[in-house]
Amino acid sequence: MELVGPIGWTKIDTETNTDLVPPMFVNRHTIKGDHDHSAFVFAAKSDSMEINPQADEDQGAECRWVTQAELDELLATDSKMRKEIHRYASEALRVVQART
């Protein structure tokens, strides 16, 4: 897997500095009551189709690779597809396609 930076970003390392890939999006969302999380959302590309959620709480998550058309269809037909997830995934597809 390789992280992909936003369009317009270029990695420029020097002898004294290593650039880190910046997130595509940063958000804050409520977990429960007054418990909030901040999220840094990255885009990545992979040579493998394998998906392995790491955290225990992610083991029940539905994860799959989709095209933009399939993503749009999920937004229109699946109530679990939140608008912000569609926006993040659409931008990730756009950025990865632009860099390949």
**Overall pLDDT confidence:** 90
| Span between termini | 14 Å
- Strand fraction band? 15-25%
- Write down the domain tally: 1
Going by helix content, strand content and strand pairing, the class is alpha+beta
N-to-C series of helices and strands = EEEEHH
Please outline the major beta sheet: 2 strands, antiparallel
Radius of gyration: 16 Å
Q: Which features would summarize this protein structure in a list?
A:
alpha+beta; 100 residues; globular; single chain
Note down, in words, how this protein is organized.
This protein has 2 helices and 4 strands; from the N terminus they run E-E-E-E-H-H. It has 100 residues and is α+β, with helices and mostly antiparallel strands. It has one domain. Strand 2 (25-32) and strand 3 form a beta hairpin. The longest helix has 16 residues, at 83-98.
Could you write a compact summary of the structure shown?
This protein has 100 residues and is α+β, with helices and mostly antiparallel strands. It contains two helices and four strands.
What topology does this entry show?
Elements: E1 2-4, E2 25-32, E3 35-41, E4 43-45, H1 68-77, H2 83-98
Antiparallel strand pairs: 1-4, 2-3
Helix pairs in contact: 1-2
